[in-house]
Amino acid sequence: MKLGIIGSGMIVQDLLSFVDTIEEINLIAILGRKKSQEKIEALTNKYQIKKTYYNYDDLLNDDEIDTVYVALPNHLHYEYTKKALLHNKHVICEKPFTSNIDELDELITLSKERKCLLFEAITNQYLPTYKNIKDRLSELGKISLISCNYSQYSSRYNAFKKGEILPVFDINMSGGALMDLNVYNLHFVIGLFGKPENVEYFANIERGIDTSGIIILEYPTFKAVCIGAKDCAAPISSTIQGDLGCIKIEGPTSVLSDVKIIKNDKINESIEVNSNNHRMYDEFKNISKYIDNRDFNTCDLMLEHSKIVMDVLTKARKSANIIFGCEKDAK
Q1: Range of 246's domain?
Q2: Which end of the chain is least crowded, N or C, by CB within 10 Å?
Q3: Helix, strand or coil, per DSSP, at residue 80
Q4: 19 vs 123, 222, 255, 277, CA distance in Å?
Q5: Which run of H or E residues covers position 161?
Q6: pTM to 2 decimals?
């Protein structure tokens, strides 16, 4: 995979810290804004990136690049992914995939027309620990309740309270606690149990954006509660509860670094985790193989999963009457 990176934020710097350890990835270029030139040049020098671009068309016209990684603010995911697909590039797009299900449906259709592979960069779906959790669900017996809490006081929330609107709290940039943190919980639950029958979102809203909220997912025989907060904090943990025992996860559902299975007979057992790699390592290692092998079957499976998550996100926001700026423009 010959990669061009779009963006220079913290998530990109995380990727750059280990991308050279993945032999399937050949990092070709990075794209940044001209106003961030000093930062881009520093990253280019530090990580020995071959090419630097400040114009997206120039990067897309580079035949040496076959895949782009879109790591921009949420509201730009659709636009930049669409343009890459129109240039016949494969795309890895950061979570949340798009602002709503209609945008994602359009991108999926376009990717199939162009015979390009399209993936959402979502850590937990590729972690070996996640597969171990899925494999051991039957040991819990009949599932009754799931609870996932990803509450983390945002370093930007104090500024937001004073009236300064940064991207993560910007209604015009598809921000909010649901799209930033609770999306990990949704991927976690939906990846294990599939599409829920009903979705409802109870959000705390300030200036039109959800600063925290609770999603209730209704399944035929159990309920799942997903909590995401950026205006308050609590111990971050999740549980899957059955009549024979539970799985307990300490820490966010994006990492899965501390997982235990607790049986009713009080026998506790840690589920094996791969703690040596960066949390993003497995997603990029696997996706790069899928792209190199033109594995459209796996791509389709992952897209179907992402579609369910995006459909839930869209329904949840509608239930809380959260309307992004891009959606107002569309109307």
Answers
A1: 125-274
A2: C
A3: helix
A4: 15, 40, 18, 11
A5: helix 157-161
A6: 0.96
